[in-house]
User: What shape does this take?
Amino acid sequence: MYGDLPVNGSIAIPRAELEWRFSRSGGPAGQSVNTADSRVELRFGLAGTTAVPEPLKARALHRLAERLNDGVLTVTASEHRSQLDNRRAAATRLVALLVEA
Assistant: This one.
């Protein structure tokens, strides 16, 4: 969670290119149940990265165009009570999207 994010054997996203945001996760159980900032939003500037080779980046930009906002790919996770578990889930989703693209 604190180092580079490996995508495959030859590509890893530098930690400096990942932007993490945290907020309170909503839920049906009441106002004071989940007061920790456990909801995670992970943002990755795909269009501006140098970690992904140009041919692969161009293909990913094309395939993920519907999900990008100004070249930035955003994933969220809030299904776990723990911020750490949600960080892992968001990172896993980001990697899966990049591998699939």
